[in-house]
């Protein structure tokens, strides 16, 4: 049996609490700052209702995965995670009907990222309560960034780019002031899924190396208007910040007409728009301040694929 946080084995001599929760006590203290794993006591009906409300307000992963905010309380000494409909300390991503084991898949991908040396925010799996308990993915928000970086982070790593996602003006005004204040050497703003027009001008300073914009994918994707994309492009040009239009999304509005764009064409259609600004080879911003080598983009598998 492995810990749902660090992924390491839970030994037979582990405490009863560790065996029942499938969390190391040390992982609980590091992730939540509590002596015991906080209780996540929610019903499926509540989970679905609040997830839908959060999605309608724009708090969602592009495509299919709903997410919601959790507030950690310790009333009466018993730590508890409470679902709220505003941004706070933790993010919960539950199971979806469309795709089986999506939280587990995201957890696995994040573990793979860590194994390759990519810096990640703290993440874990946590069980919901009740007879039909399921796994949910939990992580921390950007405003807890400094609690999540390695001890030797300092002013940031030369080879790590950190992006902050914003989907509407409310989230931009909440997240970006925090993001700009953080010790990060390479910063990018990811306006995706773009759900409305935004003014990013106050946040486009010399520390931002790129703004990448895209619409939402998935069956229930919300529309992305090309006018919003162009407006952000003009803001980037005015501030001389590299701009990239990386995907149209599934429902794309241009000149007042709605287009349904298949997933396989969303990247290529954005590229055909030819509106990127200061984006160079390999779709890397021309202003990046660290070296990119040919070998970073080619390996023996790519070369073998070309030969065949």
Structure description:
It is a single chain. The chain has helices spanning 16-21, 25-32, 44-56, 102-115, 169-181, 226-239, 266-272, 300-307; strands spanning 68-73, 80-84, 90-93, 123-127, 135-140, 161-165, 186-191, 208-214, 224-225, 243-247, 251-254, 257-260. It is built from 8 helices and 12 strands. With 308 residues, it is an alpha/beta fold. 30% of the residues are buried. A 5-stranded antiparallel sheet has the order 2-1-3-5-4.
β-sheet strand percentage: 15-25%
**What strand order characterises the main sheet?**
2-1-3-5-4
Structural class: alpha/beta
Distance between the termini: 43 Å
Sum up the structure in keywords.
alpha/beta, globular, 308 residues, four-stranded parallel sheet, 19% strand, 8 helices, 27% helix, five-stranded antiparallel sheet
Brief rundown of the structure:
This protein is α/β, with parallel strands linked by helices. The chain has helices spanning 16-21, 25-32, 44-56, 102-115, 169-181, 226-239, 266-272, 300-307; strands spanning 68-73, 80-84, 90-93, 123-127, 135-140, 161-165, 186-191, 208-214, 224-225, 243-247, 251-254, 257-260.
């Amino acid at each position: 049996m492995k810990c749902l946080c660090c992924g390491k084995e839970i030994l037979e001599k582990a405490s009863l609490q560790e065996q029942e929760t499938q969390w190391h006590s040390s992982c609980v203290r590091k992730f939540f700052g509590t002596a015991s794993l906080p209780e996540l006591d929610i019903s499926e009906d509540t989970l679905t209702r609040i997830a839908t409300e959060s999605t309608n307000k724009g708090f969602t992963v592009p495509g299919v995965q709903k997410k919601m905010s959790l507030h950690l309380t310790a009333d009466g000494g018993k730590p508890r995670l409470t679902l709220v409909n505003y941004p706070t300390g933790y993010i919960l991503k539950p199971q979806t009907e469309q795709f089986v084991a999506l939280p587990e898949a995201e957890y696995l991908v994040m573990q793979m990222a860590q194994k390759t040396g990519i810096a990640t925010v703290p993440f874990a799996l946590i069980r919901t309560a009740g007879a039909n308990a399921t796994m949910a993915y939990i992580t921390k928000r950007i405003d807890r960034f400094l609690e999540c970086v390695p001890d030797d982070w300092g002013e940031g790593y030369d080879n790590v780019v950190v992006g902050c996602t914003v989907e509407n003006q409310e989230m931009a005004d909440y997240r970006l002031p925090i993001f700009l204040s953080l010790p990060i050497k390479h910063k990018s703003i990811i306006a995706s899924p773009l759900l409305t027009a935004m003014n990013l001008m106050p946040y486009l300073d010399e520390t931002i190396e790129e703004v990448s914009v895209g619409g939402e994918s998935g069956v229930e994707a919300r529309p992305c208007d090309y006018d919003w994309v162009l407006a952000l492009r003009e803001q980037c040009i005015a501030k001389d910040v590299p701009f990239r239009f990386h995907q149209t999304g599934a429902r794309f509005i241009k000149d007042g007409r709605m287009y349904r764009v298949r997933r396989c064409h969303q990247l290529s259609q954005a590229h055909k728009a030819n509106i990127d600004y200061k984006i160079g080879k390999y779709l890397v911003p021309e202003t990046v301040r660290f070296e990119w080598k040919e070998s970073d983009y080619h390996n023996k598998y790519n070369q073998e694929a070309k030969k065949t």
